[in-house]
Amino acid sequence: MADVVKWWSRLTAALTGAVLALVVPAHAWAASNGVDDVMIEAARRRTRSRGGFGFFFVGGLCCLFVVAAVVLVVLLISRSRKRRR
Length: 85
What we know:
signal, mainly alpha, elongated, transmembrane helix
């Protein structure tokens, strides 16, 4: 049980660090850069004739690849730790 708690705390710390390292600076940059006005203007100018399915499909596919890569790295690290013992 102690191994599970140790593993869970390390994983939580890594995810928290990743979120703080990536999301907080991006949010601060977007808030101070006037990006919100550009996004609102782009949404108003967008035409309804073309479909937007391709963007969501490619974004979802990219997200799946990133999640799969993270899971693969975690599995490889955990297996290499078991072999050392």
